[in-house]
Amino acid sequence: MASQTASRVLMLFFVVLLILLLILRSEARSLKQTRIDSRLLLNDLGYDKYKLEYFRHESIFDSGTRRVSPGGPDPNHN
Questions:
Q1: What sign has the CA pseudo-torsion 33, 34, 38, 40?
Q2: Residue of 32, 34, 33, 52 lying closest to 42 (CA atoms)
Q3: CA angle in degrees (0–180, nearest 5) for 22-23-27
Q4: Does 23 map to a domain?
Q5: CA-CA distance, 78 to 66, in Å (whole number)?
Q6: Are 47 and 56 in contact (CB under 8 A)?
């Protein structure tokens, strides 16, 4: 009986210790800066500078050619 109680207490201790370690080791940062540089943020997230420039250029100069109009109202609707 005593060994079961001791093993439960030991298991509870390890669970609490594991939770505390996970909380203390988290790498969350508060963003207290008033201005965030979006290019630095995207670079930190792993986006390539040249691909972003390509897509920005495509969105500015080639925006009208990729747009398609919808097929219109569905004749079977209503």
A1: negative
A2: 52
A3: 90
A4: no
A5: 31
A6: no
**pLDDT per position as a tens digit, 16-40:** 999 888 877 766 666 565 677 787 8
Kindly report the pTM of this predicted structure. Answer: 0.33
Question: How many structural domains does the chain have?
Answer: 1
Q: How far apart are CA 3 and CA 9, in angstroms?
A: 10
Tokens of 16: 């609490």
The identity of residue 23, as a single letter, is I
Q: Fill in the DSSP letter of residue 72.
A: -
d(CA 15, CA 17): 5
User: Is 73 within the bounds of a domain?
Assistant: no
In which domain, by residue range, is 60 found?
36-64
Say if 59 falls within a structural domain: yes
Decide if 12 is inside a domain: no
